[in-house]
Amino acid sequence: MASVTSLFAPVDGDLAELTHNLKQLVGARHPILYAAADHLFGAGGKRIRPAIVFLLARATTGSEDILPQHRRLAEITEMIHTASLVHDDVVDESEVRRGVPTVHSSFGNRIAVLAGDFLFAQSSWYLANLDNLTVVKLLSQVIMDLAEGEIQQGLNRFDTELSLEAYLEKSYYKTASLIANSAKSVGVLSDLPEVQIENLYGYGRHLGLAFQIIDDILDFTGSTEVLGKPAGSDLKSGNLTAPVLYALEEKPYLSTLIDREFAESGDWQQAFDLILASEGIARSRELALYHADQATYCLKDLSPSASRQALLDLASYILRRIH
User: Fold this and answer.
1) In CATH, what is the architecture of 4-320?
2) Whole-prediction pTM value?
3) How many Å apart are CA 76 and CA 228, to the nearest integer?
4) How far from 51 is each of 7, 9, 222, 230, CA to CA, in Å?
5) Cα dihedral across residues 208, 209, 210, 214: positive or negative
6) Are 302 and 60 in contact (CB under 8 A)?
């Protein structure tokens, strides 16, 4: 299976420059923040979000080089994503991310919250300096959506009445909104016709949803080594995802276990086993496949290029993570 990094070959140079710039942008003025940034931007993240921005920028501008605004958009996208991860890890009390200690476990909660705030503020500053009101609105909405997604997830813990629609809405806020709106922003900056701008948004939205559903499947089928966290940790914290919601339709006893928040010995393991014994994983796979197919359909109007091919391959790559 090709690695995700090899998919990004058309934008390797862009991504290398991005990593260097991000460390500089966070700035050497604050040694502790610089250390946190070095820790975050050097933690071997896949850079999927900025890579999508670069690939779309190259796919829509043709042979010319991409605009400086496209480069800055990619940096802003990764900053927003990273800021949200820092805060998520504090909220979820995660000790490790991608096999590396989280910012709060290395630097303490105070610094982690401030580092996340600093990154959000810094991204807003660079966003304003793009001098494109449409893009400012699109990415400001993302920052609101990220907070909304976290709040919804917190309010819906252990809620066995949660609908699949509410789960997808939360997944959009938490994961797909950033990819969708940064993809749409590429179209705005590339001055594309409105229909094509909406198609780029559709690509990002469907790809983001497929990505999140697959993450939620891997929470049941992946190993700690692959996940960088113990399997079933979403279920344990009461975050009910697609496999659980589908399993609840077939296994009524599962709702009893969840409603009492796994209070009795063996409850959680029993719930985990019930989900694996249900059609929940298979139906979640179908849902992910639907969104991945929709994502590729949204690229139909782009001219053939290595970057467009990489964007199509990315949808297949995401699906292969569960096979």
Assistant:
1) Orthogonal Bundle (1.10)
2) 0.92
3) 25
4) 10, 10, 25, 28
5) positive
6) yes
Distances (CA, A) of 104 to 23, 31, 110, 112, 118: 19, 16, 8, 5, 14
Alpha-carbon gap, residue 178 to 141, rounded angstroms: 9
Confidence of residue 1 (pLDDT cuts 50, 70, 90): very low
pLDDT at 62: 76
Tokens of 11: 């934008």
Q: How far apart are the first and last CA of the chain?
A: 10
Given this model, what pLDDT does residue 110 score?
A: 82
Q: Which residues pair with 95 in a beta bridge?
A: none
Per-residue pLDDT tens over the stretch 98-155: 667 777 777 777 887 888 888 899 899 999 999 999 999 999 999 999 999 999 999 9
C-alpha of 280 from chain center = 22
**DSSP, residue by residue, 182-229:** HHHHHHHHTT--HHHHHHHHHHHHHHHHHHHHHHHHHHHHS-HHHHSS
pLDDT digits (tens, 9 = 90+) for 182-200: 999 999 999 999 999 999 9
Whether 180 and 142 have beta carbons less than 8 Å apart is answered as no
Say if strands 96-97 and 100-101 run parallel, antiparallel, or are unpaired: antiparallel
pLDDT at residue number 57: 97
Q: Are 53 and 77 in contact (CB under 8 A)?
A: yes
Indicate the average pLDDT of the chain: 89
If you write DSSP's letter for every residue of 46-88 in order, what string do you get? --HHHHHHHHHHHHHHTTSPPPHHHHHHHHHHHHHHHHHHHHH
Domains of the chain: which residue ranges?
4-320
Given a contact cutoff of 8 angstroms between Cβ atoms, the answer to whether 134 and 188 are in contact is: yes
